[in-house]
Inverse folding.
């Protein structure tokens, strides 16, 4: 997500509080928010895909694999 889009999200939020938004602006704000959330979720997924934990035996395991392993033990 670009800095310009984030600035526009903030601009629309300020305008909404001050005077309200037109229908077109509400639609734009909703679209920008969806893009922002998708970007944050994607970044978090990438970070977790590259995160490892060390199990009791000292083995390096990806977080996703560790979560699956923990769920099967329950």
């Amino acid at each position: 997500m670009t800095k310009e889009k984030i600035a526009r999200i903030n601009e629309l939020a300020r305008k909404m509080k001050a005077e309200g938004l037109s229908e077109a602006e509400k639609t734009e704000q909703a679209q920008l928010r969806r893009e922002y959330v998708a970007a944050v979720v994607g970044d978090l997924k990438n970070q977790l895909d590259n995160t490892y934990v060390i199990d009791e035996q000292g083995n390096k395991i990806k977080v996703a694999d560790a979560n699956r392993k923990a769920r099967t033990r329950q």
